[in-house]
Design a protein that fits this description.
The chain is an alpha/beta fold. It has a domain at 2-180 and 234-261: Rossmann fold, CATH 3.40.50.720. It has helices at 11-22, 38-48, 62-72, 86-91, 93-113, 147-164, 199-208, 235-250, 268-279, 303-309, 317-330, and strands at 2-6, 26-31, 53-56, 76-79, 118-124, 170-176, 178-180, 214-217, 229-230, 232-234, 254-260, 266-267, 285-288. The strands form four sheets. It has a seven-stranded parallel β-sheet, with helices on both faces. Strands 7-10 form a two-stranded parallel sheet. A two-stranded parallel sheet has the order 8-13. The protein is globular, with a radius of gyration of 19 Å. The two termini are 33 Å apart. The chain binds nicotinamide-adenine-dinucleotide and uridine-5'-diphosphate (UDP). Uridine-5'-diphosphate binds next to helix 7 and strand 8. Nicotinamide-adenine-dinucleotide is lined by residues 6-7, 9-13, 31-36, 58-60, 80-84, 99, 103, 122, 124, 176, 178-179.
């Protein structure tokens, strides 16, 4: 199949690009490079031995998107492009409504006019909000607690309406839990611009010496060891869920939502320990106050992913830490400097 990947120069998009090509599909990437890297797409070309076209532009630019659709005629879209920092979404919510919601609206309009009927969307466990029970299943009420989460929910709702309007259309929203890790080659990985917001890239930066210590946000949660607990999953497992979703869309009508997680929580302290084993040295940590807006603990019920997609996470916490370390130690400055 011909697949258009928005945000394919980003972290999850570049890993998915590898799996999409490995599965025998053709892919074109659309990315504004606001948080993506040309080098990521070049490295995927190298990894897969295929020449990948990166069209640099913004998903909100309708005529740009139309020109790509006309030229490439994709049969399906995997839609990663968007802004993803929770704190930034609180400070600048309109940017999030514009890029995430309006950008998705423009994309769906263009898909409609170009007769492209299938889409896989990057949603997030953030849509659930305060847990009423755990693990979250897909029937858990949705009540996101920040603008970022609300934009994800709005796009899910838009996909529901878009796909209901024509029986040929189908959409899957994958609600990701906490993707971490990197391709085992060490060629591609997560390269956040500026200070990382998320735990794993921050641990990796402390391990490689770019940052001096990890601040552990809160040591007094009601969890096994007092630190926050999340459902971390390997980005390569996540990438494979997108390929399986493309297959599932073929005999699906309407919109479906599917959790993508391992079903197991890992605390911050457990993650640090696992990373210390991977990098074979200790990591400086300091416990500080809780981060505003953080939930103590959440993890997925991932039975629906198994039932609908035949997907289950295969890679372990050890794999996640080893592959992150391979990436970070081979590329201490990310994509900025070639280390080989
Ligand atoms: P990322 O920032 O690495 O990738 C997003 C890509 O989209 C970037 O390459 C960026 O340049 C591009 N982009 C942003 N705005 C654009 C626009 N207007 N037009 C075209 N391209 C644009 O982020 P990621 O971690 O790979 O996340 C991918 C998707 O998954 C996002 O939609 C994110 O919200 C969602 N998600 C991520 C996580 C996570 O923990 N990483 C969790 C749940 C959901
Ligand atoms: N965390 C931390 N220090 C950091 C970044 C994150 O202690 O520098 C904790 C955070 O409080 C949460 C967990 O690590 O308990 C995962 O945070 P992340 O931002 O990666 O994911 P999210 O909270 O968005 O699920």
């Amino acid at each position: 199949m011909k697949i258009l990947i928005t945000g394919g120069a980003g972290y999850i998009g570049s890993h998915t690009l590898v799996e999409v090509i490995k599965a025998g599909h053709q892919a074109v990437v659309v990315d504004s490079l606001v948080n993506g890297h040309t080098e990521a797409v070049e490295r995927v070309s190298k990894l897969t031995g295929s020449d990948i076209h990166l069209a640099v532009g913004d998903i909100r630019d309708k005529s740009f998107l139309e020109s790509i659709f006309t030229e490439f005629a994709p049969e399906a879209v995997i839609h990663f492009a968007g802004l993803k920092a929770v704190g930034e979404s609180v400070e600048n919510p309109m940017a999030y409504y514009d890029v995430n919601v309006n950008g998705s609206r423009v994309l769906l309009e263009v898909m409609q006019s170009q007769n492209c009927h299938r889409i896989v969307f990057s949603s997030s466990a953030t849509v659930y909000g305060e847990p009423q029970y755990l693990p979250y299943d897909e029937n858990h009420p949705v009540a996101p607690i920040n603008p970022y989460g609300r934009t994800k929910l709005m796009v899910e709702q838009m996909l529901g309406d878009w796909s209901a309007a024509d029986p040929e259309r189908s959409a899957i929203s994958l609600r990701y839990f906490n993707p971490v890790g990197a391709h085992p080659s060490g060629l591609i990985g997560e390269d956040p611009r500026g200070r990382p917001n998320n735990l794993m890239p921050f641990i990796a930066q402390v391990a490689v010496g770019t940052s001096s210590e990890l601040q552990i946000f809160g040591g007094d949660y009601d969890t096994r060891d007092g630190t926050g607990e999340r459902d971390y999953l390997h980005v390569v497992d996540l990438a494979k869920a997108h390929v399986l979703s493309l297959n599932a869309l073929a005999d699906q009508e309407g919109h479906d939502v599917i959790n993508i997680g391992t079903g197991h929580g890992v605390t911050v302290k457990e993650m640090v320990k696992a990373f210390e084993i991977a990098c074979a040295h200790s990591i400086n940590t300091r416990t500080v106050a809780r981060r505003a807006g953080d939930l103590p603990c959440f993890f997925a019920n991932s039975e629906r992913a198994q039932a609908r997609l035949g997907w289950a996470a295969k890679l372990s916490l050890t794999d996640m830490c080893r592959d992150t370390w391979t990436w970070q130690s081979q590329n201490p400055s990310g994509y900025k400097a070639r280390e080989y």
